[in-house]
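Example 3.2
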Amino acid sequence: MPKKLLLTSFLTLMIVFAALAYAQDATPPLAAPREATPVVAQQVEPPAGTVKAIVVKSWGDNPVWADLTTNWSTYGKIRVSIDHTTLIRNDFTYTDLVNSRAKVIILSDVAGGNQQYSSAEFAAIVKYAKKGHPVLGTYAAFYNPNGSVDDRRLAPVFGLKASLSYGFIGITNSFKKDAKGCLLNKIRGSSWQSNGYNQSQLPSSGTWTGNLGKAKAQADSDAFMGVVSLYKATTYTGIYISNMPEYQNVGGPDEQLLYNAITCYVK
């Protein structure tokens, strides 16, 4: 084989391998599967005045949820309690959400965890949110082309567009503040470095600029390849963080941001 043709073939193979490596790295390794458990509300309720949140059908468990439940006073004056076991890998109904007595719903890397929502589950999230319960979503909440999981019907819960095509991109995780408000309380300075998973879900245009719909940017990374957005609906608030600050991460500005998202908009 001529040297020129051999070199061309080698370069082509390298490009293919690089593309495959990127696709594999676009979502974090799945959490160890949890055995299915009966879908029941927790038996021990937290003290009065506690903001209870529940992680619903998501990527998997993360140590930050237990840490926030134990060390909430590091981040503010409002006690939080996060149920990160009951519904985290189970199908669910609207009744399950009601029985949880959660004030906040957490959707942690839903599509990235290959969690395909049913029509009934989409409807349950929308109905529960409209009853006045804030919703927090992170990273691949809407679409995962690697696993052919399409949860884009969740996007309007956050004021975002279900009609967009979404993918992934690597980011530096350096976020700068674009607004002032409760969501960024106690995060010092004009920017912070996230220690979460350093990928972002983003529209296929390659930027969140012009694609936030009814949501407002509170912070961004890498010229809006990453974003923290806030959507104030009539009866609830939707917060979306396009990287995954909770991924194997405890403490610092990431945990402060998650605490703020859970406590700031409860009515």
